Every structure is written in structure tokens, then in C-alpha cells.
Amino acid sequence: MKQIRVLLIEDHFLARMALHSVLSGHAQISIVGEASDGEAGIAMYRSLRPDVAVLDLRLPRVSGFEVLAQVRKEFPGARIVILSNYQGSEDIYRAVRSGAMAYLTKDASGEELLGAIQNVHRGLRYLPQAALGRLAERMPAVDLTPREAEVLTCITKGCSNREIADELGIAEKTVRIHVSSVLDKMGARDRTQATIYALQRGLVHLD
Predict the structure, then answer these.
(1) Ramachandran class of 186: left when φ > 0, alpha when ψ lies in -120 to 50, beta otherwise
(2) CATH number for the domain formed by residue range(s) 139-200
(3) Domain 139-200 in the same topology as domain 4-137
(4) For the chain, what percent of residues have pLDDT higher than 70?
(5) What pTM does this model have?
(6) Sign (positive/negative) of CA torsion 171, 177, 178, 179?
(7) How is domain 4-137 classified at the architecture level of CATH?
(8) Are the C-beta atoms of 168 and 154 separated by less than 8 Å?
(9) Which of 21, 45, 22, 23 lies closest to 33, judged by CA?
(10) Rounded to an integer, what distance in angstroms lies between the CA atom of residue 105 and that of residue 84?
(11) Staple partner for 200: which of 25, 124, 125, 135, CB 3.0–4.6 Å?
């Protein structure tokens, strides 16, 4: 079983030690580095290139939001799990919009954190129902037709226009029209953002 290389970016010593203890006890996890502030976190990410980074948002010198933005700018494929005391919808929304693939609060269990890391490592997003609920509160309703809802579900699965056409039994040209309409109604600039919005608004659900 291939190990998941994890970088911890957390300023509180005891919290960092607790994370290390919980995660390093699992055979699939290898803690490759620990940073106690945002500036060090960015530098360590550059040098270590971990599979997954676990990031706190409240950090000295450089905030977690700035770390997230900088790392994602330099490494667009970076897989980052937010672990924070912040529970407000705006914080969750901002983190997800900035590229975080998972958002957990610090009262999450070790098992849930491990599951989030494993999902993110596989390229999947992980947002607990509580986080999705808070996001849904701040998002306006989206009025999709039944066909557009089907197209959106296919988009969240990563299907191409051709694959959507085959799945729904419609012309590829028609799919392009539906995709354009879905993005417009959701205020999304691309498919990735539409997927994030769909999860936030509860329009689709992760299996």
C-alpha cells in the first residue's frame, strides 16, 4: 500500500503534536514535514511537494488563506485539507473557492480526518454535511430544468460533452447548449467551479 505523504501546517504545538500522533499511527500516512507558520508552510510545500497538506487557516506571519492561494498558484494540482476552528459559511466558501479540496473543523474525529486525506489524495473533494449546509445558506437558489440537472450530474462526474451525449442519448451540440446554460445559471466560470457550486448548494451529492 503506497503511503500518502502529508505536510502539517499548524501553529499550535500541542495541536500539531496531536495531529502527528493521530495520523502517523496509520500505516498509509507518512508525515514528511511540519510547519508552525504560514511562511514556513509555503517554503516546506515547495521543497517537499507532499501528496496532501493539512492546513490551519489562523496562522502567524502569513494566514492560511494566503498559504492556500500561494501554493495553489504555484502548484495548481496541490491537494489541501483545511482543518480550522473557523465554522462560518464565508470562511468555508472562500477556502473552497481558493482551491481547498476538503474543509473540516477541529472537532472532527481522527477517523474523519484520515478519511478526508484519503479522499483528497484520490482527487475527490470532502465536505461534511455540516459544511455543505452552511454553504447552502449563503448561496442563491438555482432553477435548473430536469435536463440541465442531468447534465450537471454528469459534469460533476467529470464527463466530457461526448460522454454526456452518450449517457443521455442527445446530440453533442445539444449538450454544449445545456452546459453553457448550467454555467450561466450557476454563475460558474468553468466545469470545476460548477462542480464546487453544485456540492455547496446540495444540487448533487458525493457518493
Answers:
(1) alpha
(2) 1.10.10.10
(3) no
(4) 90
(5) 0.67
(6) positive
(7) 3-Layer(aba) Sandwich (3.40)
(8) yes
(9) 45
(10) 5
(11) 135
The label of the residue with cell 474525529 reads 109
CB 40 within 8 A of CB 11: no
Q: What is the mean pLDDT of the chain?
A: 87
Length of the chain, in residues: 207
Q: Count CB atoms within 10 A of the CB of residue 61.
A: 13
pLDDT reading at 201 higher than 90: no
In this predicted structure, what is the pLDDT of residue 188? 80
3-state SS, one letter per residue, for 18-63: HHHHHHHCCCCEEEEEEECCHHHHHHHHHHHCCCEEEECCCCCCCC
d(CA 40, CA 17): 17
Calpha distance 92→75 (Å, rounded): 21
Longest CA span, the chain: 58
DSSP the chain: -PPEEEEEE-S-HHHHHHHHHHHHTSTTEEEEEEESSHHHHHHHHHHH--SEEEE-S--SSS-HHHHHHHHHHH-TT--EEEEES---HHHHHHHHHTT-SEEEETTS-HHHHHHHHHHHHTT--B--HHHHHHHHHHSPP----HHHHHHHHHHHTT--HHHHHHHHT--HHHHHHHHHHHHHHHT-SSHHHHHHHHHHTTSS---
